[in-house]
Amino acid sequence: MGYKLEGSVAVVTGAGRGIGKAVALGLAKKKVKVVIADLLLAEAERVVKEIEEMGGEALAVKVDVSREEDVKAMAEKVLEKFGRVDIVVNNAAICPISPLEDTPAEEWDRVLAVNIKGPYLVIKTLLPAMKKQGGGRIVNMASVAGKMGAMVAGLHYTASKAGIIAMGKVLARHCAPYGITVNTVAPGPTATEMTADWTEEEMARLTQNIPLGRYGTMEEIAAGVLYLVSEEASFVTGECLDINGGLWMD
Ligand SMILES: NC(=O)c1ccc[n+]([C@@H]2O[C@H](COP(=O)([O-])OP(=O)(O)OC[C@H]3O[C@@H](n4cnc5c(N)ncnc54)[C@H](O)[C@@H]3O)[C@@H](O)[C@H]2O)c1
């Protein structure tokens, strides 16, 4: 009944592009069947095609992780297609950069709904299947913002990512008796569409504080997730892995 990466089934939210896509491709290279769960179905389908062209197996599912009915429908599709779930990567998130005084309360609610309620709903819905299997891996995507406070992103985003880091510790204790590890990855600034419209000035504000002097790549962040879902990480749980070029050290 031990956990084995090859041949396992992973659900990666927000895998239609960016870091989530890099995680999905990395998993597919390790012969993991990957569910590309994203609000953007066309993007998710493109990733599935890429994986199939590599000889892998994948499924695109349109889901808004903040909606319980969507998450339940996704779980049904995954279990119908693959019959199991071994890995969950809660990567989907949004990051508006509105200054506090200009942040509408609706935007606050939406950020918390996607970034915090989403992972809660996905884990709650998929955990029963994972428990039955007697082992698995959960990785939640936080941000350096959740540790040091965002320098560009909004207050809501910082609150959501600090929440994800704290949730990881409770989840790690909760899931340990079932052989399921729960870890967090906290990336620093990474070149994706999320940061594509940041101004030169905003980018400079961050880069000058990064000892390695640059943004990370999606693959560098994905590498951390791939370690945490590996068999080698079997004794790692409740950890928050910083991948940030030295921007924040603790
Ligand atoms: N890019 C960075 O600098 C950076 C830094 C720290 C942390 N992160 C975190 O890494 C993760 C991935 O970020 P990215 O940079 O690849 O972002 P991205 O915007 O490029 O990709 C996010 C993906 O999530 C999907 N998504 C958004 N809302 C969704 C919802 N409600 N339901 C389902 N899918 C949804 C989007 O469609 C998109 O495909 C996020 O959790 C983000 O907070 C990113």
Walk me through this protein's architecture.
- There is one protein chain.
- The chain has one domain: NAD(P)-binding Rossmann-like Domain (Rossmann fold, 3-Layer(aba) Sandwich), CATH 3.40.50.
- It has helices at about 20-30, 40-55, 70-80, 105-135, 145-150, 155-175, 200-205, 220-230, and strands at about 10-15, 35-40, 60, 85-90, 135-140, 180-185, 240-245.
- The mean pLDDT is about 95.
- The chain is α/β, with parallel strands linked by helices and about 250 residues long.
- The radius of gyration is 17 Å and the shape is globular.
- Helix 3 runs parallel beside helix 4 and helix 4 runs parallel beside helix 6 (about 155-175).
- A seven-stranded parallel β-sheet has the order 3-2-1-4-5-6-7, sandwiched between helices.
- The protein is built from eight helices and seven strands.
- Bound molecules: nicotinamide-adenine-dinucleotide.
- Nicotinamide-adenine-dinucleotide binds next to helix 1.
- Nicotinamide-adenine-dinucleotide binds near residues 18, 63, 91 and 92.
